[in-house]
Design brief:
Structural class: alpha+beta
Helix content: 25-40%
Strand content: 15-25%
Radius of gyration: 21 Å
CATH architecture of the largest domain: Alpha-beta prism
Strand order of the largest sheet: 21-22-1-23
Number of strands: 23
Bound molecules: ligand EPZ
């Protein structure tokens, strides 16, 4: 398992390109199962999560070619059983369930395991697919969905105790594109990645209105065709580099971003005292770090609120911001694994239930720390950028799941990092 060694103290300067969105790519790749036509998807980030999805689609019988950021895929003749070992390793692969059920009238997909950020139930996905007419059974760790007479449109409310479900909305929306009649999804997730998926599906010939809002209406069609699509920028990667620039940067420029998708993230960084200037087109920004900053409070919420996927990174930034900051994660109340590792580096954080109380310290110090999940590992990298000494971050595979060539991008900005192959 690789390690990342971050020698703290370098000032970040210069410009990098932000990659395409991992969380838009995954459901869009799954949606290609809905047609036997060829699809070409551009700006798919080269991260292990998208590589897993490509492997799953190949195992289902798709013909997939990947060259740098472009995936060319034809799902002419596919199986309805997803490979258990692959699916169970990546929760997001649950989003092949809806397309498989709609295309094959049967889907066998392994129950996703939980993970360190919390129990990852799929009850809302199943509520929606059952409402469309699927029969749901469980056997040998698999979910078995069948709809021998096809799917029929329905009115579905997908709200859960922690708000809307992103992949649950994706699954039901994809299945509904080939259902008989009209489907209405109330309490839908409104993330930009859901809208990007809907735009892809509409280009394929689907009839979806209201994506990007809490109420989505889908009129079923007979079949969908292959299309080309370019994935939206990754707002969480962009937010992570924004936080890095606010921590240790000077005039860092991010290119190929989307201002519209980053309002809550931008607002939080500006609220803690830094300045962010966007260009006219809103596809570039420069972060001006302000050494005189103050703590601020963060409460995560479904889009357009502050994203839970940026909670750990903001915690790392606020760990060395003077003052007290209170960070509450309403989506994943257990998502504070990064705090114990930040405390090894000298952070002053008290975690109580779904809230972290952070008292900014003058400087963190290097320590051997361990990545536990994708965004927690990003938070450790950020903290190490400014810490005194050299921090070793183990289990780097967590970060490689969702950040494309993060060490190369940090080196381009002048950070002093090195990837060390573990013997
Ligand atoms: C998506 O996961 C993202 N993953 C996650 O990003 C992100 O943290 C999450 O949305 C919330 O924004 C992808 O898009 C691939 P949810 P998803 O269903 O869809 C509960 C990352 O770092 N829930 O929106 O799996 C759930 O427990 C990843 O890139 C149910 O109760 O999350 C959580 O509390 C991590 N029942 C809340 O809803 C269900 O059936 C939101 O989860 C489904 C979810």
């Amino acid at each position: 398992m690789d390690k990342l060694v971050v020698h703290g103290g370098a000032t970040l300067r210069g410009a990098i390109n932000i990659s395409g969105s991992k969380n838009a790519s995954l459901p869009i790749l799954a949606a290609t199962l809905l047609t036997e036509g060829e699809c070409i998807i551009r700006r798919v980030p080269d991260v292990s999560d998208t590589n897993y999805m490509v492997q799953i689609l190949s195992a289902l019988g798709s013909d997939v070619e990947r060259s740098s950021g472009t995936v060319r895929i034809s799902c002419a003749d596919i199986s309805d059983e997803a490979p258990y070992e692959l699916v169970r390793r990546m929760r997001a692969s649950i989003c092949v369930m809806g397309p498989l059920l709609a295309r094959k009238r049967r889907a066998v997909v392994s129950l996703p395991g939980g993970c360190v950020i919390g129990d990852r139930p799929v009850d809302l996905h199943l509520r929606g697919l059952e409402a469309l007419g699927a029969k749901v059974e469980f056997e040998g760790g698999n979910i078995i969905l069948t709809a021998p007479d096809g799917l029929r449109g329905a009115e579905i409310d997908l709200r859960g105790t922690h708000g809307p479900t992103v992949l649950g909305t994706d699954n039901v929306m994809m299945a509904a594109t080939l259902a008989e009649g009209i489907t209405v999804i109330e309490s839908a997730a409104a993330e930009p990645e859901v809208l990007d998926l809907a735009n892809f599906l509409n280009a394929m010939g689907a009839k979806i209105q209201g994506a990007g809002t809490r109420r989505i209406v889908i009129e079923g069609v007979k079949e969908l065709k292959g299309v080309e699509h370019t994935v939206i920028p990754d707002r969480i990667e962009a937010g992570t580099f924004m936080a890095a620039a606010a921590l240790a940067g000077e005039e860092v420029r991010l290119r190929r971003i989307c201002r519209e998708h980053m309002k809550a993230i931008t607002e939080a960084i500006v609220k803690s005292g830094h300045r962010i200037d966007f260009n006219e087109a809103g596809d570039e920004c420069v972060i001006h770090r302000n050494p005189e900053t103050t703590g601020c409070d963060i409460v995560t919420a479904p889009y357009p609120g502050y994203p839970t996927d940026m909670q750990a990174q903001m915690t790392a930034l606020l760990a060395t911001t003077p003052g007290i900051s209170v960070i509450k994660d309403t989506i994943f109340p257990q998502r504070f694994m990064h705090c114990s590792e930040l405390k090894r580096m000298g952070a002053d954080i008290k975690v109580d239930g779904g809230t972290a109380i952070v008292r900014g310290v003058a400087q963190l110090s290097a320590a051997p720390v361990m990545a536990s999940d994708l965004r927690a590992s990003a938070a450790l990298v950020l903290a190490a950028l400014k810490a005194k000494g050299s921090t070793e971050i183990s289990r780097l595979y967590h970060i490689d799941r969702g950040y494309e060539h993060i060490d190369e991008k940090l080196l381009m900005l002048g950070a002093n990092v090195e990837r060390v192959k573990d013997r």
